[in-house]
Specification:
One of its GO terms (molecular function) is transmembrane transporter activity. This protein is mainly alpha-helical. The chain has 13 helices and no strands. It has helices at about 5-25, 25-65, 70-80, 85, 90-120, 125-175, 195-200, 210-245, 255-280, 285-300, 310-335, 340-370, 370-385.
Length: about 400
């Protein structure tokens, strides 16, 4: 983590994800003000996430063929390059098409970026490295998501769009200086035996010479981390989408709750890093899921009572999910081994993005007929229902 390559990786991440975070709330506003309404505003994000997830499925193959730097740089360019063209039209169809291209770029950088973390540091530091990577993603979002719309008033749409273009392009120019190795199986000479220990902690005692058996072992060992990741992202996605609707006349309580949700995620990932490295992957999945479930229970009680109760509930959900995010990523890396870091990264990112979309759509389907209390209750039950899968395996996968 002290190498120039890893520090440069963090700088590239801040620039790339910062440009994304700045535009995320502004693009829906752009089409909404042009007359596309709420449907058009939601469609911009929906199309973006759809192409992101579809792209993530192909990234492990692209990493093997092209290498990390080429995939990462290409993703940053695709994320940035379509943005200025949005200024030429506010019609929904062209904007959705341009945002679909941006989603492809985002799918590339999310998988390549988190896989690079595993490549650039030895397994003994994966917890802390993933934590710092999470901070590099979370802090720009924490600052820019609430400020995105306000920035439009200060700089206008033109200034925001060009800033969101320049930041990822600058990051792409820095990528060639990353001394990233190719995604091939190897041992870390500086940490003999660490990989075996990490894989044992994840329930995998060796890399099977049989590729089918190796994939099966990875899937079995990854069930717990993926279940925790999906349940947590459903809860967070539901809160992000519906908190403004739960208490529409609550004044500043809802923005503060959204900030608390994001802040909790950043703090949770920061706390998880050293704990995962010291205690091994998989130990924080259960407490993280329970903490998020308790937070959703507080949100359930807040509906119809006091909007300020939404703040501690959102903070608890964010903290719990932050623990799960970091621990699940390291657990998947340990289960996969160096030969499958790309696949582990893709699985984690797909779980995050797909769960976020499911939280928005699935909990919305519950809230429409039964109300937000029922929706938040379903999310809490889902978090609790997945906890048995997060328990550490008592014996290694054969």
């Amino acid at each position: 983590m002290r190498t120039a390559a890893f520090r440069l990786m963090l700088a590239v991440t801040v620039l790339g994800f910062g440009g994304h975070a700045l535009l995320l709330p502004v693009l829906p506003l752009w089409v909404s003000r042009a007359g596309s309404g709420e449907f058009g505003a939601g469609a911009t994000t929906g199309v973006f996430m759809l192409t992101t997830v579809l792209t993530q499925l192909a990234v492990p193959w692209l990493l093997r063929v092209l290498g990390y730097r080429a995939v990462f740089a290409s993703g940053l360019v695709l994320l940035a390059a379509p943005t200025p063209f949005v200024l030429g039209t506010a019609e929904l169809g062209p904007v959705l098409a341009l945002n679909a291209v941006r989603g492809i770029g985002f799918g590339l950088i999310t998988v390549a970026g988190s896989a690079l973390v595993a490549e650039l540091v030895p397994p003994a530091e994966h917890g802390r490295a993933s934590s710092r990577y999470g901070l590099a993603i979370g802090i720009p979002g924490l600052a820019l998501l609430p400020l995105g719309v306000a920035t439009v008033d200060a700089l206008g749409f033109t200034g925001v769009f060009w800033t969101a273009t320049a930041s990822p392009l600058l990051a792409a120019l820095l990528v060639p200086f990353l001394r990233a190795t190719s995604p091939t199986p190897r041992r870390h000479a500086s940490d003999p035996g660490v990989e075996e220990l990490a894989r044992s902690e994840a329930g995998v005692d060796r890399v099977s010479p049989d590729p089918v058996a190796g994939r099966r072992a990875f899937v079995l060992a990854g069930l717990g981390p993926m279940a925790a990741m999906l349940a947590g992202s459903v809860a967070q996605g539901g809160l992000t989408t519906f908190l403004p609707l739960v208490a529409p006349g609550a004044g500043v309580a809802v923005p503060v709750a959204l900030f608390a949700l994001a802040l909790g995620g950043v703090l949770g990932r920061g706390v998880a890093g050293p704990l995962v490295d010291r205690r091994g992957p998989g130990r924080l999945l259960l407490p993280g899921g329970v903490l998020s479930a308790l937070g959703m229970g507080v949100e359930l009680l807040a509906v119809g009572l006091s909007p300020w109760l939404l703040v501690p509930g959102a903070l608890a959900v964010g903290l719990g999910f932050g623990l799960v995010q970091n621990d699940s990523l390291v657990a998947l890396f340990a289960a996969a081994g160096p030969a499958r870091y790309g696949a582990a990264s893709a699985a984690w990112n797909i779980g995050f993005d797909a769960g976020t979309g499911a939280g928005a759509s699935g909990l919305g389907a519950v809230a429409q007929p039964f109300g937000f209390r029922a929706a938040f209750g379903v999310a809490a039950l889902l978090l609790l229902a997945t906890t048995p899968l997060t328990r550490r395996r008592s014996s290694p996968t054969p």
